[in-house]
Amino acid sequence: MTKILIVDSHPIVRKGLESFLDAKPDFDVVGSLNSGIEIFDFVRHNKVDVIISEVDLPELNGITALRAVKKENKNINVLMFSHQPEEIYAISTLKAGASGYLNKTADLESIEKAVRKISSGEVSLSEKMDKHLRYEDTRKSRTRLFKRLSTREVEVLKLLSIGRKNKEIAEELSINEKTVSTYKARLFKKLNVTNIVDLINQAKHHDLA
After folding, report:
1. 79 beta partners
2. How far is the C-alpha of 114 from the C-alpha of 112, rounded, in Å?
3. What is the pLDDT of residues 138-175, one digit of tens each?
4. Per CATH, which fold does 143-205 belong to?
5. pTM of the shown model
């Protein structure tokens, strides 16, 4: 049984969520609070698995409350359910310890799905936001790869990207062809590619071409 606490300053929102979630056989809404400051006393005296909270709360905003609650109760999963735009608040709430973010324009099925997801230890975001975060993680990972390149390797990569042959690169950089081949082999290894086309595509993706 997933024990749920709802925190929102609007009674109609609290009542609506409570009625919907309590109707599920494996959900139990154990509390409904008006402000962020009330959360601390409640979780000290009641078993709570999931908190559904608005960002904008009286007395103490949802993000500040979230940070403090997670510090003392790492086992409680928090879903931020807010009218605030996801693209602005989702990342900051995740960093503060939330397990998910859902805009109040979401339908009932999405609310249930989000609660089930975070109660099982997963992160719940909209499909659009999830793709954005995955893209950012991939981009940062690739950027870290490029930071591992030496200045000379970057020079060779740039010249390869504009179609220069080994001999031309050797002449332009005043090194021999064998050294160019060595740099090329290092680039393949460091950037995890197996051919010149993929190597050039990597360079273009990171504005090195």
Report:
1. 52, 100
2. 5
3. 455 455 555 677 878 888 888 888 888 999 999 888 99
4. Arc Repressor Mutant, subunit A (1.10.10)
5. 0.63
